[in-house]
Structure formats: C-alpha cells, structure tokens
Design goal:
Strand content of chain A: 35-45%
Order of helices and strands of chain A: EEHEEEHEHEHEEHEEEEHEEEEEEEEEEE
Largest interface: A-B, 37 and 37 residues
Shape of chain A: globular
Number of helices of chain A: 6
Oligomer: homodimer
C-alpha cells in the first residue's frame, strides 16, 4: 500500500486492503494525520483522474456534474474536526466471546480528523433543494464490494434532514493534505458523528430519492442485530442501520501484554460520545474493583471529536488488569462485558476496554 | 395527600410527601393522568392563590410579573408529550448493592405526560431576549428544601440555549387538567428530555443570569458522582449536573415476587432514551442468557416520550428471573449490573431491570 507507512500499521487484510495504525502512534496527536488513519476498503482501491466529476440529480434536483475544481470554486470551504470510527472498531473483543463476521479490529479503526470540503447542503441548495427536507441522499462510489457473495457498487444513503444540518461535507483534504487514493481521492463524503461506513469514498453520484438505498452495504451490512439473530437466514429488516454509535473508550498506551517498569506509569487513550460530551473517564488497574478519574488531554475538543485522556499512577511489580470506561453527559456509560453486546456482524464493540500488563 | 388516591400509590415519605404509583396502574395508559403521576416534593407543598404571578427579570430583560391568566392570554398555547422521570427512579436497585442517599424508588418515579402551557422562549422574546443565547435561566420556586442540613428556596437553572429551542414550557395542565398543588399549581416549568428536578414546580421567579444557580439543588444535589466519591467531604464540583438521562427500561407487569399461573404470560413495561429513539427492547426470562425482542405498544411515540412494550411468552411451572434492557438508535444499551453504576447520591439507576416470578 503506497498510502501508509506499514511500519506504523497492523494489516488486517491485503485484498481488500484493511489496516489500522499502532495505538501508540495513533494517540500521539489530537488530529490524526492521513498517514496514521485506518484504511477500510470493501473492494479494490479506485484511482480516479483529476477530471473526475460527481453527478447530481434525482427527484426535482437540477442535474449537474461537478469536478473537484468546480466544487472548490463554487462553494464556501469548511473545515470540521470529527472522529471517524469504523462500526467494527474493537471487534476483536467481540470475537473473543463468540464468532462474528468481519476483521478482528483492535482499538485503531478510528481517527480524529480535520476534514476540509464544501457543505453538501450548500451544493443541494444551489441545485434547487429549496425547503424540502423529506427523503434521502443516495451516494454511489467507484468501488465494487462483495456482500453475501454478490458484487455491488458501494452505495449508502443518509436522510436529507441530516445533510441539511450543514456539516455533511464533500471533502477533499485531511489535515490540509489532499485525500490519498486509499482515503477516497479525489472526493469523499464526510458525515460527522456517524459510523465511518456512511462517509462514502470515491464519490461518483449523489441522488435525491424518496427511499433509502437498497444496496447491500446500506440495506444488509452495517446493521446492529439483536442477540437472537445468529447470522443464518437473516431477516435483514430486523437490524438497526448504524449511524451514530454508542459511547466508547480505549487504552492505547500501554498495550495488552506489555511488560513495563515499576514506578510511574502513564496510561493514555481516547473516548468519544457521538453528539454528546464525554463527561468523565474512569480507569481501573485492578480489573474494575476500584476506579479513579482520568484527566482530559484535549480541552475544548469539538463536539464530534474524540477526547484523549491520561491517567498517571505508581505501580509496584505484579500483574495488572487495566480497564477504562467513559461516561457521557447524559450519564450513559459502556457495558461491562463484551458478551452483553455480541452480535453476529460484530459491530459496536463498546464493552469496558481491558488490557493485561506485567510490571517488573 | 389530597392529590392522589393512595390506593394506587406506594408512599415513600410523608414529609415531604413522596409517592409513586403501582407499576401495574402506571403502565395501563400511554399518557399518564395527573392522578397516577409520581409525587416528588423537597419541602411542604405550597398552596399559591389564583393571582399568583411569576416575576421575570435580570440581565437586560424587561421586568414583568405575569399571572396564569396573563400568560394564557398573551402567548400561543402549546401541548407537548414528554416523559418526566425522577433522577432517582429505580434507586432501590442501587441501594441493593450499596447504601445511597434518597428514597428507595422502585420503577414508578416516572410518567408520560401531555403538558399544556406556553413556551418560555416566547415569553423571553416578548421581554426582549433578542438574539442572546449565552447564559442561564434561573428558576426559583415557592417550596423550601433541606440540602445537607440547611434550608433553601428551591432553585434550578438551565441554559438559555436549551430554553430557546422552544419546547421548554411554563405549564398549567397535565392531560388537559389544571395542575394540582402537588404537581406545581398554578404554574411549573417543564423541560422535556431532562430529569424531573429541572422542571421546577410552584414557579415564583425566572431570571436571566450569566452564571448557573448556586443554590444547593442545582450546585450540590442532583449530580452524578464517580464511584470513588463516597459521600464524605464531597468535592461538589466533581459531579455532573444531571439533565438528560441514560437509556432506561423497566418491567411493570408482572411484579417482583409475583406468583402467576402457567401458560400464556404477558410481560409489559416501558423504555425511554432521552432525545434518541428506543430502537429495540430485549426481554429474557432466564436471567439474561437468552434474549428475545419485545414489541412496541405505542407506535409513533413522541421523541421525549416513553415507549411501552409487551412480550408474550408461554411459561411452564418453575422459578424465573425476568430481565429487560432497551437499546437506543445509536446502539447504546443499559449496563448489566447495578454495582457498575452505583453512586453515593443514588441517581441514574439504569442497570438491566430484573424481577423474580414464580409460575405454578
């Protein structure tokens, strides 16, 4: 992969290419650079030329085809900081209690990104959306994916109401740097506060419709199913379309299985709460019996951003189970056990994050 | 108490009067009538006359004193359905794992109410609020309460931003019936989607200020503290002011300890998700090993309303532990165990609700 330095990554799959950064590198910065952002591909990575245009149309919208240069010239530029997290982040913890679909992501299928682009709402206004708020924006992409053994163009939908809140972007840059092919060059959608799957890369068309997309990525995959649905003869309508996600947190330093020296230890990680504020992060070094509060590293983090936290503790030689959980400003926290949130597709793995550390 | 038929209530405290309805009565209707709404008083119930006026003022607002008749005549009437839940609802489950402050509420310190009144935002606009959105609305009430051994007038604050969303009401009626003295006659605040404590009863003044109220109800009580704060020499600044609450659910029928006949059994309860939609309710009759989906009784419930659910099952003779948990549309669910959310003040008791039932 030419997009990331593989020394900083754990590759989960070669084809399609899926990789997450080492947590210790990921957590170094508040803003994740493109070179440290996880890559989640559903098919081969498309390489679109500089003259690639996104087609717009459907349901009374004026038809248009706009290149990156035309979007940049025609609409105000916006920069938004928003965490992007794969719905399957931390799936390895679910797989530890039961088989699921999907790659065994550790804690790195997330990044906290400064996106630059234009508001999709501004573009739709220019194309005649007027006061309409009912319906869906269906976004098609250039990649071809396999779901349940069949190949389909990648296609997702989000409600027009969400788009018209203004912060949904057609983005061309991460941290001021043009999107690399792996991250959707030349233009991708960014839906702040939604699971990564909705932020379609390599956009080819954006259409207004009365109904959501029936493509498998939208209608079957990336849904949360109840525990009595085990993945055979699935009633796909029973799943919840994953958009916002539950409060989550993880320890990035030290790593599970590390051996560290006795004395001062700094535990570092992230937390995020999807449209709510992270009110508190609790850390335990004894498996969850005694908890203490972590301090926030990032003061004044943006609403859809992550919040890095730090906990300083003196440790004597021995074996420790370190645990983290976050609490949002509605008092909502994470479930204790992965088995309580197991689902056959392996999404929304948000149980308390636990690691084992030996102190010598 | 002249406000409720005590045959339908469990009285938790006489002075001040605190009582919750029998869950089997509470769950009969989507809209809770005033006669079945829990009563939470912090002091003696004030009896204010028909000419009682609320004083408005502070920070550049035009001073005014408005009676119920003047509010009714001067502003558009609004009706809003919103659940009102005490931050201490289900506290008995927390007290089962550790001592806390407060009354041992079962599952009845909640009601789903149709409120009628005027928008406080409309009143503030009339008094010259203009475009201002920074600051706090401080609401004083006629009751006097004791917090930490000291008597204070009841006083809470909410952000001006929240008020100007429009659905915060000065309300005079529940289900079309004038407020009884126990529920705040003649006029109370209603803050949809916030814990009951913010919906101050017996309003006497509403003031715009730069800072939140420093009164103990706002600044000390009704805060969520971390588990390492055990209630001695409390650092009050460490608590999270409780406004929105976590997703919650409870079984209302049958009751804990009931004996029922073998055969068809209907389990009924409520769920609510504070600004999010209740996406799913899971029920288990074997203590949480196998879960099945409940069906919703109320289709199209309002955003801040509860959602009643029902689960029909055939049961053979034996002992059962029945459990419920709700999942919101961000995939957020409830914690498994009460000990994981214990806090010394006994708030936000939202672990899976469990009851024991014998089938004969």
């Amino acid at each position: 992969m030419d997009d990331c330095d593989e020394a900083d990554f754990v590759v989960r799959q070669r084809e399609p290419f899926n990789a997450e950064p080492l947590p210790s590198r990921l957590i170094e910065q508040y803003l994740t650079p493109q070179s440290l952002l996880y890559v989640r591909s559903h098919g081969a990575i498309p390489h679109l030329g500089g003259n690639h245009a996104i087609r717009f149309g459907g349901d009374g919208l004026r038809d248009a085809a706009l290149t990156l240069a035309e979007l940049k010239a025609g609409f105000p530029h916006r920069s938004i900081v928003a965490a992007m997290q794969c719905a399957g982040n931390r799936r390895a913890d679910l797989q530890a209690v039961g088989k699921t679909n999907g790659d065994p992501w550790d804690v790195g299928a997330i990044g906290n990104v400064e996106w630059t682009g234009v508001s999709l709402g501004d573009v739709l206004r220019d194309l005649g959306i007027g006061d309409r708020r009912k319906g869906y924006i269906v976004c098609k992409a250039a990649d071809v994916d396999e779901v349940e053994g069949e190949a389909h163009a990648y296609e997702i939908s989000i409600t027009l109401r969400r788009v018209m809140e203004g912060d949904v972007l057609i983005s061309w840059a991460i941290g001021g740097e043009p999107l690399s092919p792996a991250h959707g060059a030349p233009m991708r959608l960014v839906v702040p506060g939604y699971a990564g799957v909705r932020s379609a890369k390599w956009l080819t068309s954006i259409e207004l419709r009365d109904e959501p997309s029936a493509a498998p990525i939208q209608a079957k995959d990336y849904k949360l199913f109840p525990p009595d649905e085990v993945g055979r003869d699935v009633d796909w309508s029973k799943g919840l379309v994953i958009e916002a996600m539950p409060v989550n947190s993880a320890i990035c330093v030290p790593r599970n299985g590390d051996t560290v020296d006795a004395g001062a230890l700094t535990v570092i990680g992230y937390a995020l709460a999807y449209g709510r504020r992270v009110a508190r992060v609790d850390v335990s070094i004894d498996g969850g019996r005694y908890w203490a509060g972590a301090r926030f590293i990032d003061v004044g983090a943006a609403p859809d951003a992550w919040q890095r936290w730090q906990y300083d503790v003196d440790v004597a030689p021995g074996r420790y189970e370190m645990v983290v959980r976050a609490v949002d400003d509605a008092g909502q926290s994470q479930p204790e056990r992965a088995r309580d949130v197991w689902n056959f597709a392996g999404y929304l793995s948000t149980a308390w994050h636990r690691i084992k550390v030996e102190v010598r």
